[in-house]
Amino acid sequence: MKTAGIILSGLFLLLATTTASFAEEEKEAPVDERTQAALHVKAGKRLLDLGEYDKAIVEYQAAFALIPHPQMLFNLGQAFQRKGDKVKAAEHYEKYLAIEAKGKSAQQAFEMLAMLKEALAKEADGPPPVAKVTVTSSVPGDVQLDGKMVGKT
User: Fold this and answer.
1) Are the CB atoms for 64 and 76 separated by under 8 Å?
2) C-alpha distances in angstroms, 80 versus 45, 69, 70?
3) pLDDT 10s digits, 30-59
4) pTM to 2 decimals?
5) What average pLDDT values come out for the chain (153 residues) when binned by 10 residues?
6) What long-range pairs does 110-118 form, CB within 8 A, spacing at least 24?
7) 81: burial class by Cβ within 10 Å (0-12, 13-18, 19+)?
8) Could you tell me which of 99, 106, 44 has the C-alpha nearest to residue 76?
């Protein structure tokens, strides 16, 4: 009976130290990629909301490198768009739509892409041409251009 008690005490002690050992290893174990990616997404969203676009882009790119989920392409499109980089924003929306044409953010991506393409086309056309106009008149009066007063003769 006494021997059984000693054996049970030994097993209990072994079990307690083994459990503690596993708990310590679990704390030291690296976080899995999905969790790391989720942390990057959360940080990216927070930074995007704060207007830290370059930092948000880095976080979204890190998340995409770990788990190449199409939603990250959409998120990157938003970050580049808010940063003012229309070309990169359009590229990321196009990549997203190539993979997720019917995804949860597809409608918004189509709308953003159309808007960006229109803005880029206007920029490609350049500013309207500028011309010098000389007005001479033998009668004094107001000079208007496109209905706006621009001078007097």
Assistant:
1) yes
2) 13, 18, 16
3) 579 999 999 999 999 999 999 999 999 999
4) 0.63
5) 42 35 40 92 97 98 96 97 97 96 95 95 77 75 76 77
6) 112/77, 112/78, 112/81, 116/81, 116/86, 116/89, 116/90, 117/90
7) buried
8) 44
